[in-house]
Structure formats: structure tokens, C-alpha cells
Write a structure and sequence with these properties.
The protein is 16% helix and 29% strand. It is α+β, with helices and mostly antiparallel strands. It has 2 domains: 104 residues, Immunoglobulin-like (Sandwich); 308 residues, Rossmann fold.
């Protein structure tokens, strides 16, 4: 068996990729692929002598033997896979739990569109070393919480991932690159979009990088954010930049990067509660609604198995987001897809009511007190039944309404922010299972890129 990790998972064209590798064979080589909806081979290195190294705690830098790979100077921006190839190894694939390392090649901002890869969220579910934030989390005293290292195998691919397999695609592990990001990126490139790529750690280190772009995309399960990441995105929007969140459980936990960014800490519980929830008074006191317009505490719910969903009911069909869909007020989309569009986790704005006959919803009068931006427009809604596996705690003044619903919405605060309110948008989009979803996605991306260009 062979495993590895990158010293730094984001590079510029022509830089050296530094890998740290433990190999049970005498020889291996590094073969680099770019993800373009399939794995496109870029280069292969020489055969190298392998060395076996020990497994460490999930909290620690594993300090494995280093090997470097010189990237070509003309590498296009994208998401790449370093296949750690032993002799007679099969071809690589995105569900690999060994022999693979994910990394990003940055771009020079010659395009308006930026795609953000959520490495912190990948790391939270990475079970290399026998632990993650959801199973035996290693404790940290300063800062207090649980600590996970980025310097271990499995950051998006190439290691064990914690969590139940996806009922609708057991070949694609959740909380990995394969599940959401790979699908959305494949669709983007197939449609002719050519985004630049970065990671959330790049934004943590240099929030100003966002200002070179018109639209930032976040997809899937972008759950863990540091304060500089969030500040950077909110400042970008305030300055006229646009963001589209085709994701859910968005910005649910705050993380603190430590040891020069090689590890992260999150306080998720204790006698005084979870200090690193964004919204509550004993946490960061910055409701995530202010970032995206919605929150997991109002949408809430996760459903691991085969789930029920009536789909989204359109609320504002005259909005440009719905142009070309033909949807009317209260009409549904995303109900008959596999997986259903809503789930497996979802975010929402607080609702006062939802009429199941007409499909019409109304925002709660307390929405602004929960952090919902004043300019938020409710585009679509889907109430969650009590059969969902979690309906999380929220503020006392909205708890009595007892309406947990996924919502899709948009607001303007300098720039414009769109939120889809569901993790599995990418699966439905990539599977061409609902033309409404594809049309809305294209409208969002094209519309927000046009808006930004018009401002310059």
C-alpha cells in the first residue's frame, strides 16, 4: 500500500509539488492528472525508491519522507490528482482511499470566475490516524477544541473518510472531492466555463485575492470556515463582488488555523456549549445567515438513506434566476430526481408559513433578528418533515414556529449573493436529471458574471 499528502495543496504553475509518501513497495512513481470531468494525464515522473513510514495521530504532522515533482510552467488552473503509482497498479479514480493526493493549481485572474475548494471541510471528515471531528476528536488546549492536521493522507482523496456512504451513489464517498466538487467542475468545463481555482486556505492567507474576480463559487458541503475566510468573502461582496453558494451546512463551524496553517482547531462542545458555532451568543455571535442568507439551523436536517422530498416550490418565478424554466408560482422542481434535489443536508431562511396546497411560503417576521439580510428574496422553499434525522436547535423566538425548510434565495449587499440551500445540487446538475436545475445554474453564473462586468 502507498499513501501520501502534500506539504501545500495549492500551487502556481511551474512550482514544485512537495509530497510526503509512505510506500510498502520498493518502487513507485508520481503520475499527475487534471480533473476535467475525467482524469486527464498531464505528466509522469521517474520511478523512485519507496520507504515505509509510520502512522501518527490525526492531530500531528506525519513527517513522512519528502519527494518533489516539478509542475509544468503552462499548467492551466484546475484541480489535480497526484497518483502514487506502484508497479502494476490499476488506473486512478476519484474514490481512491490510498495512492492519491489532491492539489490545486492557481490562476492569474485573467477570468472573472473563481471556484473555491473547501479543504477545511475535507479535513474535518478525514479519518486518517483513526480520528476526525466526528469520531474520537483529538483535543487541543490552546486554542481549546479539537485539533486536526492537514499533513496526513486523505484531504479530499486518498484516505479514509468518516460518514455513511451515499445511498444514491455508493461508489462516491461523501465529504470528498468526488461527491460534489468533481461533479460540478465537470459540468462547468463541459459547458465551456473556464474558472480559476483556489482553496479556502488561500483565502485565509490572502483574502484580497477575491477582489481580482467577479464571482466566487462554493459547492457541496462548505461547512468549516476561519474568521479570515469569512471576512474575506464578506468584504469581497461588500466591495461589489458576487458569490454563489450551491452548497449547504454552509459556514456552520468556525475553525482556527494553527502551526503556520498546517492544522486546524474547532471547539464543538463542552460545559459551556460549542464556542465555534457561528451564530449563538456563546459562539462567534455572527449568524451565518449574514453571509449566505440562510442557515442550517433553519433548514436543518440530514437524511443518510433514501429520502423523501417534494422538491423546491418556486416563490418568485418572475425573477431572472428562473428565466427560461417556465415555472409558475408554487410549481415544483427537483422532486423526482435521484437523489432528490433537497438534501442530504440543507439550509434555509426562517419561515412563518408554508401552504402545502399552493406551495407558497412566507418569511418569518423575526428573519432579520436571526441574521437574514434585509434585501433577501425568497426564490424557492421546501419544508422538511419530522422524518429528517436532525432538526437543529435555533433561537427561542423562532423555535415555536417549528417550520424547518430548505430555501433558495438571493440578496444584494454591495454585490449579490445566491444560495441554493442544499448539498446535493451538484449531483442533480451533473446527472442532467432536471432541466430546471441546469437552467437556474446557468442563469446564476451568467447573470452574476454580467453584473460584475457591468460595474467595471
Amino acid at each position: 500500500m502507498i499513501y501520501g499528502y502534500a506539504a501545500k495543496a495549492s500551487l502556481w504553475p511551474g512550482e514544485r509539488l512537495m509530497l510526503h509518501i509512505s510506500c510498502g513497495s520498493s518502487r513507485f512513481r508520481v503520475v499527475v492528472y487534471r480533473w476535467v470531468g475525467r482524469l486527464e494525464r498531464i505528466m509522469a515522473g521517474p520511478w523512485l525508491a519507496g520507504e515505509r513510514a509510520g502512522v501518527r495521530s490525526a492531530a500531528d504532522d506525519w513527517e513522512w519522507p519528502p519527494y518533489s515533482v516539478q509542475l509544468p510552467p503552462d499548467c492551466p488552473s484546475g484541480v489535480y490528482l497526484a497518483h502514487l503509482q506502484e508497479r502494476d497498479a490499476p488506473d486512478p479514480h476519484l474514490a481512491m482511499t490510498d495512492a492519491a493526493v489532491l492539489f490545486v493549481v492557481r490562476g492569474e485572474a485573467r477570468v472573472s470566475l473563481l471556484y473555491k475548494i473547501p479543504l477545511a471541510s475535507y479535513n474535518a471528515y478525514n479519518h486518517a490516524g483513526g480520528a476526525c471531528y466526528y469520531d474520537k476528536p483529538p483535543r487541543s488546549l490552546d486554542p481549546p477544541g479539537a485539533r486536526l492536521s492537514f499533513h496526513r493522507p486523505g484531504l479530499g482523496i486518498g484516505g479514509p473518510t468518516f460518514g455513511a456512504p451515499d445511498f444514491y451513489d455508493r461508489s462516491s464517498p461523501r465529504q470528498s472531492f468526488a461527491q460534489w466538487d468533481a461533479r460540478f467542475i465537470g459540468w462547468l468545463l463541459q459547458q465551456g466555463y473556464a474558472p480559476d481555482f483556489c482553496t479556502d486556505l488561500d483565502i485565509h492567507d490572502d483574502p484580497a485575492l477575491l477582489r481580482r474576480y467577479g464571482l466566487m463559487l462554493s459547492v457541496g458541503h462548505d461547512e468549516y470556515w476561519s474568521t479570515p475566510m469569512r471576512d474575506g468573502v464578506e468584504d469581497f461582496v461588500a466591495a461589489g463582488g458576487n458569490a454563489a453558494f450551491f452548497s449547504a451546512t454552509l459556514c456552520w463551524w468556525r475553525v482556527h488555523l494553527v502551526d503556520q496553517g498546517s492544522a486546524m482547531v474547532c471547539h464543538q462542545g463542552g460545559p459551556d456549549g460549542a464556542r465555534d458555532h457561528w451564530w449563538p451568543s456563546n459562539g462567534a455571535q455572527r449568524p451565518e445567515d449574514a453571509l449566505s442568507g440562510a442557515s442550517y439551523r433553519h433548514g436543518g436536517g440530514w437524511w443518510d438513506g433514501q429520502r423523501e422530498s417534494e422538491g423546491y416550490a418556486a416563490q418568485d418565478p418572475e425573477h431572472w434566476i428562473f428565466e427560461g424554466t417556465g415555472l409558475g408560482c408554487g410549481q415544483r422542481f427537483g422532486a423526482g430526481t435521484s437523489p432528490p434535489l433537497v438534501g442530504y443536508e440543507c439550509d434555509g431562511a426562517p419561515l412563518a408559513s408554508f401552504d402545502s396546497t399552493s406551495g407558497i411560503a412566507a418569511l418569518a417576521p423575526t428573519a432579520a433578528a436571526c441574521g437574514t439580510p434585509d434585501s433577501y428574496r425568497l426564490l424557492a422553499a421546501c419544508p422538511l418533515s419530522t422524518r429528517w434525522q436532525e432538526r437543529p436547535h435555533r433561537e427561542a423566538h423562532v423555535a415555536a414556529a417549528n417550520i424547518h425548510a430548505a430555501t433558495m434565495g438571493i440578496f444584494t449587499r454591495g454585490g449579490t449573493v445566491f444560495q441554493a440551500g442544499t448539498t446535493d445540487w451538484a449531483q442533480v446538475l451533473a446527472g442532467s436529471a432536471d432541466q430546471h436545475v441546469e437552467t437556474i445554474t446557468r442563469n446564476v453564473i451568467d447573470g452574476l458574471m454580467r453584473q460584475r462586468r457591468a460595474c467595471h
